[in-house]
Amino acid sequence: MDTPQNTALARALTELPGPLPARGVIHIAIRHTDRFTVVGNHLAQHTGLSTVAVGFAVRIQSLPQGTEIGIKALAARFREGEKIIATALRELEAHGYLRRARTRLANGRIVTRTVFCNQPTALLRAHCAGTSPWLPPAEPQAPPPVQDAEPEPPTPEPPAAPEPGAPQTPAAREAAAPQTPAPPDVQQQQEQAPEASVPQDHAPYVVLVPPPTAPRQPSPPLPQPRELTAELHRAATALLGDLRRHAHQLVLSENDIRQLAPAVAAWLERDTRPDTIRHALTNDLPQPLRHPAKLLKHRLTALIPPPLPGPDDLTAAARPRIAVTPFQTCDGCERAFRSPAPGHCRDCRTEHTRAAA
Fold it and tell me: CA nearest 113: which of 98, 126, 125, 103?
């Protein structure tokens, strides 16, 4: 009883004229007088665009000109994340609704200029026809007034009837056939039609977005153990099959377990505890999870830890080496002193300096 009921729709439904459909949506269309945006059905019912991309296209189309529509600007304005916004913008670019290009200004600064077109197909057809889609068609000019009446051209005489039994040529048959004047609308279309025109329904579709320059990097291979023993394979298979007890989304087929078992064996070979592997594979799963095997393949490859250091590595790291200067024998007094190279001790060098002075 606390839920508010919208009785206005119920009253408006009773006032609709004509029979109503037995099922499906019933539209109550009220004409907008202010703050509205015209959206074509080619966008609203586009089968190649996702619902998120269509929604952002409508939002971008409703914004005033000059508004920032970058990924961060849209993320600050709406509640969708940057990844969803970036995916939607790439879809709009692929279908010609959006174009982002880097432009150098007069002061040398490089900016990204974003262009949105509400009818990319009409823009492409106008480009092929050499016309401008946003300018109104030129109005037909009235013919100039006739100054002096010219004499009417002489009426051509009808051709003479052929003699009976004589063969008729195609030209003679066309001349003898009665000429029916074409309707005015057909005559106007024939006068306005160009000599060579491209059919509107078969206008070529030009992709406005350049192809990516960087090739897609291949996915790294699964880690492999140095020696896949029967014990390691049994432990890896049991760990993968037990994952669905800890996360119901991770239901793997026998083929998936057979392919992923060597990677888990590589983790076990590097002295990784089974609890650690299970936590790395089941922690923070995406919702919804559509491809469990692909997610586990990525995590087993990207999160594999390095091998544990040996005792010798830890001992060498705990006791760093100290550089020791060796003993040398003085060439003058034969006294021992520390120096990286042989020579004289400090006293002998001082006496030689005094003698030279």
Answer: 103
* Tens of pLDDT, residues 53-101: 999 999 898 888 888 888 888 888 888 999 999 999 999 989 888 888 8
Query: Domain range holding 54?
Result: 41-129
Inside any domain, residue 288: yes
Instruction: State how far the alpha carbon of 56 is from the alpha carbons of 74, 78, 79, 101, 209, in Å.
Output: 9, 10, 12, 19, 18
In terms of Cβ atoms closer than 10 Å to its own Cβ (0-12, 13-18, 19+), residue 98 is buried
C-alpha 86, offset from chain centre:
7
Distance set, CA 128 to CA 195, 199, 319 (Å) = 15, 11, 77
For residue 273, being part of any structural domain is answered with yes
CA distance 279 to 291: 18
With respect to residue 357, please indicate whether it lies within any of the assigned structural domains: no
Residue 92 is part of a domain; what is its CATH number?
Answer: 1.10.10.10
Task: Tally the domains of the chain.
Answer: 2
Tens digits of residue pLDDT in 139-152: 555 555 555 445 55
Retrieve residue 277's tokens. Answer: 């592997």
Evaluate whether residue 199 is within a structural domain: no
Taking the model in full, what pTM does it have? 0.36
